[in-house]
Amino acid sequence: MDLRRRIDSMGDAALGWAGAALLGCGAVLASLQDPAWGALAALLGCLGGLACGVGAGRAFARRALLPAGPAAETPATPAAASRAPAAPASAPAAETGSIDMDALAAALAGTPEPVVALAGLVRDVRLRQGAADGVFGGGTAPLPCALETFLAAELEDADVFSLGDAPVRARVAPRTGCLRLSFAEPPEDPAAPLRLRRVETAFNRALFCDRRLGCSPAGGTDACYRFSASVEASVAAQAPWRRDGDVTGASGEWDVRRAVSEGLEEFQLPYRLDARWRVNAGTGVVGFSLAAQPADAMARHMWVEGLGRVVETTGTMRRRAAAELACREALLLAFHVFDRCDGVGRVWVRVDRGPSCVLSAQMTRASVADLDPTALGDPVEAVRLAGGSVSWSGDGLDPVAPGFSLDDEALCPRWRTEEPEGSDRPLPEQARRALGSPTLAGLSRDAATRRHALAEGIAAGLGGSCESSVSFLMGALDGIDDPEVREAVRGLVDVLLEGTVDECDPMALAVGVTRVDAVRDAMARAAAHIHGGDGAAALSEVQEALARTEAWVPEGARCFSNYVERSLYNRLEGADGAQAPLVPTSRLAAHLLASSLLAATGDGDGAMAHAFAARELDPFDPSAHLALVARYEAMGDIPMAISSCCDLLERAYEPAGAAVAYYRLAFLSWQEGDLELADACYRRSIALNTPCALIASLELSALEAQEGVAPVPEGEQGRVLASRGVPDAPTEAVRSAVREAARAAVEAGVFPVARELATAAALLDSDEVLLGLRESLEQPHGD
User: Fold this and answer.
1) Which letter does DSSP use for residue 743 in this model?
2) pTM for this predicted structure
3) How many angstroms separate the CA atoms of 501 and 122, rounded?
4) Which helix (H) or strand (E) holds 345?
5) Distance CA 197, CA 123 (A)
6) Is 623 helix (H, G, I), strand (E, B) or coil?
């Protein structure tokens, strides 16, 4: 039996240990850099590669390999194509393999173990190198191309094998095509995140080489290292900024934030840029806080132009590379903002390494006017010329004074984080139509949230003598329109007059009053009964609480789960939407629970009444609509169940709600015999890519198997829905309302509302730029 067969007969575990040992010995010998040991080191490396290469990882790597042929050199994005002309293609020899890095990135995003697959690719490359060198008597596998060899070396430098089978997710950034890796759950090893980031960076370096040089560039792997060095040196050149100011760019809060977020999504950088940022368009300033790349994240091998070869980097070289990268990233952000945002005159950037600031720059258009992004020279000196503070000691960046914080009033005026529930601030005229309210208070979600805001005002007047507290509370009653809170305040007055409260914390008293919620308390008791298996007692608790508080519910009362629902209600449900009185969301939850419990007892009419009450409180709540669907279905009224699904689709503002509605409508249509509509709805539910897709896929398969229905093509689904009067959800009316409201809330400085609306708009349009914009909006209590 020859050596190859002996290895093939070994178990996977034995192969892994043997391969690791052989590769380790080869690496030790190679590190001696003695020609006498070179041949033996190569032999051990090939043997280790062969041993490790057997398995699933090797099979995955083979799927990414393409037949030999000319390499594609089309850049992934127009930005990449415009930076420099592509090098001439070099046709690899017939026995040389090829690899498509963009296709490999897409394949990794579709596998549950991307790091294991990358490790397998490295083993496969080493196996084919050994086989092609004749170490094992020859082989039929193609010799790895230069790009494969470069990728394998970079991944080995990144210590890809040390990550083992840790659960990792992979995705492809939509605007750059770069690979993004993240842990599916927090790793136990504190060093694992850095190693994973190094693996990500190694892959993206090879990705950029593929787009520019192809698989087999003239110069082999040296050309890949040389190109990678040029990419890092030209980071700031991705955003050459115009100095003449002739073209009008972004100036308002929304436009500036979108322009900044677009840049952060579109920059093609081998190292991921971790940035937090804030904008104050009113004063023309944008601030960034960057996390410095650790020196250990920098490349282990690099091209040195002065030596004309690839060298192994020392610790000092990596620290210098990290420092220069931080400076280039800071300048890149300034150039980009000044290029895209005419309304911004100042860009502040700080780079933090742990708790210390190592770079701080408050740049203006004038301070960077003489800098050429394509020829910066020494980036550390360039930052200093731009007015920045950076201290290079010869062995790393030293701490400097930060100069500013993202929480500074200049970047984050406090009024922008004011919540609607505690304010009657008027909204700007241009925001009133988009948000459906003349005041900030008209965007409040529910009474419970308003009660929390009321607590501080009441607490401020309590304390001192009993007489003064009673006098304050009696006066406060005139300004409290919440019946349940008014009742609680009267109760507190009685307690104070009886003298049963002595030197209590004023805030504790206020909170106790304003957080009163009899229905919420009953729901907690009902949950305990349900946990104990006593549904009848749970139903009694809920029904009694709802009946006892019914007199406190104003006519036309509403409650909303979030600011998106409130904004849509204001816009789409009538001109007086902003004037609707509010009740706590606990009331809606209680109606839904009562509906379910009554349905379980067979009381269909009572269950239906509570489902209607829930939908009346919040016409945009998916659970309320689905409760009605279930009640109609249980009563055998399928047409009305279908109608209720359509009502939900008409108002659905997020993919998840629309997906469930289409799923339910599909099954109901199947029951009614409308198989074409059932097929189209199942497919719409699946296409929305929510957790509902799995069950919808299973039922669609059953429909096709049992009924023999022909699939409705994607282009015909809209026609099928329209012919039955089924909305194409989320509808354009809802999409437009959410987009307009999100922009108006940002422009008006209503950030608690704007964050939720921006998230909804991002989900509706699958727009990562809007998710980045959302993160730039400060929160009420800081980040």
Assistant:
1) H
2) 0.81
3) 74
4) none
5) 20
6) helix
